[in-house]
Amino acid sequence: MKSYQNFYELYLPKVKQIIDQGILDLKAPDELKTSMKYSIDAGGKRLRPIMTLAIYQAFGGKIDDSIIKIACSVELIHTYSLIHDDLPAMDNDDFRRGLPTSHKKFGEAQAILAGDGLLTLAFMWISNSNSINNDIKVNLINNLSKSAGPEGMVGGQVADMLGVNKVYTHDELKTVHNLKTGALLSYASMAGGILANVSDSIVEKLSEFGLKYGLAFQIQDDLLDVHDVTDLTKNTYPHLLGVENTKNELQKLLSQTDEILNSIVIDTDFDKELVGGLLSYFERKNK
Ligand code: GRG
């Protein structure tokens, strides 16, 4: 856990700097760059690129600026999804991460375009890279587009919109969370292994690790958000399962993520302590 904290503190400033510089360097209108940078700089945890980098290093990968830029592409997509999710046509939120949302600050058209710019830039950063071969690029782009697109996050957002007036079954809720939250985390986890050139079966385990991590992340969020358990129209774990069962479900998922990491250690030379530190997110919040 200590090694992960040190890793996070070491790479967080690098991640921020490389994303900012990458946006500033674009040959694009200043208004667009300003709005893209505004949301990127609004103070997110940068969990997804840090996850990719930690997993890459855990397999012995050597991190440099070019690898960091590739790892940051998922953060661009994460931020685009938040900008679009806040729009009047979706959640219509005025604040995000304590600051006015993009459309409140720059207007709706500019916010839509800032999101579009971030989404497409992600694929440019991977495909432009000089430090990985074309097979790895295609593998990353294929998995990122699957995770972010209709078979992943965008599909989850639509399923969630369609489910707004019904109470989900446990399975339906799990599916929506897996698509909306889990898919991008699953990609972030896989990307670390793909960059480190591990076998397909290990990439599959990493995908499962990220998916379970994402579901745990969302359940944790639901638990922290319990205010009114009588409102059954809310599709959250505590409303569907009750608070105690939800806590048990969270613990079950966390031990499954740990088992996945153990199974990776058996097959490869893998720094489990570093990647296991990603689970410290849950320990801190559960205190
Ligand atoms: C608009 C295509 C489209 C998708 C929107 C991401 C999303 C789908 C909706 C936002 C609301 C929501 C339930 C998101 C789930 C993902 C999630 C837990 C986001 C917050 O992630 P953190 O905690 O955020 O990593 P920071 O602010 O740290 O980056």
Describe this protein with a few key phrases.
single chain, 287 residues, mainly alpha, two-stranded antiparallel ribbon, 74% helix, binds geranylgeranyl diphosphate
Helix tally? 14
Sheet-strand content, in percent, reads under 5%
What is the subunit arrangement here? Answer: single chain
Which residues form runs of ≥5 with pLDDT under 50? none
> SS-based structural class?
mainly alpha
Terminal Cα separation, in Å?
A: 16 Å
Annotation, overall tally of beta strands: 2
Biggest sheet descriptor: 2 strands, antiparallel
Helix fraction bin: over 70%
What are the bound molecules?
geranylgeranyl diphosphate
Q: Order of strands in the sheet with the most strands?
A: 1-2
Rg: 19 Å
Q: Mean pLDDT, nearest integer?
A: 94
Question: In summary, what is this structure?
Answer:
This protein is an all-alpha fold and 287 residues long. It has 14 helices and two strands.
